[in-house]
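The authors assume throughout that readers already know how a fold can be written as discrete tokens. For illustration, here is how one protein appears when written out as sequence plus structure tokens:
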Amino acid sequence: MNSTFRQPDWNHIRAFMATAEHGSLSAAARALGLTQPTLSRQVAALEDELGVMLFERVGRSLELTQTGLEMLEHTRAMGSAVDRISLAATGQSQSIAGEVRITAADIFSAYMLPPILKPLRDIAPDLGIDVVAANDIRDLMRREADIALRHVRPEQPDLIARLVAEPEANFYASESYLQRRGTPSTIADMSEHDFISFGDAAEMLGFFEPLGLKLTKDNFRVGSENGLVAWEFCREGFGIAVMGDHVARKTPGMVRLLPDMAPIVFPIWLVTHRELHTSRKIRLVFDHLAENLKGIK
């Protein structure tokens, strides 16, 4: 590769971003309306311009190198900036209308989306946002939603998925519960306490077991499929619950337990359909969410 640095071409950067998002040259070429050989040449040209290797082939798929991963964060910021400049220069942000439907878990919809979506009122005042607060996975393939926030990366090749954040969660209980039942100081102590079930208790037992918690269904006396209801039970002192730190910080009277325990890290994937990603209104919302979610801890 050429070790002499040259200013990278934006088309080459765009080809790199599409390939990284889609995971293959063929899918990226379809998304950009290019032939696969043309896209491949653009990616190779960027590697030559930068003097680095951005992808390595693993079987039939492409995987980002460490340099590629670092490069991707910078190019995404560039892409969002270019889109915003284009919108501002042409007045398109004022003309973007219609509705974008976002699906996310109820807790996330209530605590995180409102402050993130609020600036869109100024950016695109004619745009409507419908948030489907549901813990079940709405089907993007059947257009039940335009954009989804999920904790698991979807496997369908026609979906674009971007890992936007990896926030941390911990065990929490209310001050009133701890005053009544005492504060557990070890993992072993936790087995003597009540827990709040977010959905099926058996599934939660399977989730807790690798963490070293020795619990049974008897530990789960109260719960709800609705995350907001379950968290309210925790806030009212019914028991202990796992919750994202970004939510717990917004809830007065909650105490983090076992502070020396490693936090639980859960990914947030931002997902949309490949065809919908070419829509101006969906691209605007998708990029806005990606930019504002990446700071969540």
User: Anything to note?
Assistant: The chain has three domains: 10-78, 94-164+267-293, 168-265. Residues 66-90 form the longest helix (25 residues). The CA atoms of residues 84 and 128 lie 19 Å apart. The mean pLDDT is 85.
